[in-house]
Amino acid sequence: MKTYRVALVGTGKIVNSHLQAIKSVGSRAEICAAVDINEEVVNQFCVHNAIPNAYTNIEEMLSAEKPDLVCVATPPATHKNICIQALEGGAWVYCEKPLCGSLAEFDEIHATEIRTGRYVSTVFQWRFGSAVKHIRQLISNQVLGRPLVAVCNTLWYRTQDYYDVSWRGTYTSEFGGPTVGLGIHLMDLCLFLMGDWKEVKANIATLDRNIEIEDISMAMVRFENDAMGSIINSAFSPRQETYLRLDFQKATLEVTALYRAGNANWSFSLPPDVDDSESAAAWAALSEDFAGSHDQQFRESLDSMDQQTAPVVTGAESRRILAFIA
Fold first, then answer.
1. Order of strands across the sheet with 92-95?
2. pTM tops 0.70
3. Distance between CA atoms of 110 and 106, rounded to whole angstroms?
4. Can you state the angle between helices 184-194 and 316-325, rounded to 10 degrees?
5. In the chain, what are the helix, strand and coil shares in percent, each to the nearest 5?
6. Are the C-beta atoms of residues 127 and 292 closer than 8 Å to each other?
7. Bond preceding residue 147 cis, omega within 30 of 0
């Protein structure tokens, strides 16, 4: 297999997930450089993580290092320009959510993908767990019957100090509150499993944090298949929980977790007093057990690079959640 040269752009907290993902694939990837606008920070980061080259300018890094893949872990308002620079500089891109701030910005990125023949994949790691892959197969094979109801709750807790960081708390820099920054992962997973949507009725408010953006959002959704759903995204829930419930004609699937989920976080329930051995056996056939993580998505992104095919979360798959939030 080819060893891909990877550059990290942004050295904040989330970059640790990217470091772990790169480490998890062994010799398939090596970090050639890191970029941050703070020279002292990026130098210390590179020394601490044995990364050979530090930069404060993306274009200089792309010219000098010619990476195969750029991992973008910077504030949301910077994503679009960095993605386009990386594509035009010869690299594929693995970018944190939200990919960008509008559908118009998405279209700019997508046009650059078409022009360069390279791809941007958005980080939506929840899709990549073994249980989710199994559920997608059950849905595809119509084992569970029609989807009927979805409950999608991201109930997290973020302090005022969290929002007092310079790039958080405004629409210009962060694009939104828990809808865009927290609940986007579970909402993406909900749409991934339930299918496209055709109607959304929603309310947002700022109830308890001193910020410009919302700290709570609620929505009622009607899907293309006429199933219905409810969504809550909160930034001030003291008992934190990430909860998705999917009711099908023949069974209920639920996941309760926080930031990642393995098989043990999922449950399968049949209707009362129903002995559906076929559905139960289909669920029990889940044999692999790995969490939805940066590691697994990164590995599959490298598979796509090997095959020169579009990664899973690109194009229409990236655009859907942006359109839904909009």
1. 54-55, 29-35, 4-9, 69-72, 92-95, 120-122
2. yes
3. 6
4. 120
5. 40, 25, 35
6. yes
7. no
Give the closest residue to 76 by CA, choosing from 190, 169, 210, 211.
169
Using DSSP's 3-state secondary structure scheme, residue 251 falls into: coil
Q: Containing H/E element for 72?
A: strand 69-72
Geometric angle at alpha carbon 197, from 205 and 261, rounded to 5°: 75
Half-sphere exposure of 302 (CA within 13 A, CB side): 21
In whole angstroms, what is the distance from residue 265 CA to residue 2 CA? Answer: 35
Distance, CA of 272 to CA of 118 (rounded, Å): 50
For residue 55, the surrounding DSSP H or E stretch is strand 54-55
Both tokens assigned to 124: 């939506």
Which residues fall within 8 angstroms of residue 245, CB to CB, at 6 or more apart?
149, 150, 151, 252, 253, 254
Which residues make Cβ contacts (< 8 Å) with residue 140, sequence separation at least 6? none
**Helix, strand, or coil (residue 200):** strand
Report how far residue 147's alpha carbon sits from residue 252's, in angstroms, rounded to the nearest whole number: 10
Q: Per-residue confidence of the chain (326 residues) as pLDDT tens digits?
A: 799 999 999 999 999 999 999 999 999 999 999 999 999 999 999 999 999 999 999 999 999 999 999 999 999 999 999 999 999 999 999 999 999 999 999 999 999 999 999 999 999 999 999 999 999 999 999 999 999 999 999 999 999 999 999 999 999 999 999 999 999 999 999 999 999 999 999 999 999 999 999 999 999 999 999 999 999 999 999 999 999 999 999 999 999 999 999 999 999 999 998 888 899 999 999 999 999 999 999 999 999 999 999 999 999 999 999 999 99
Label residue 5 exposed, middle or buried (CB < 10 Å: 0-12, 13-18, 19+): middle
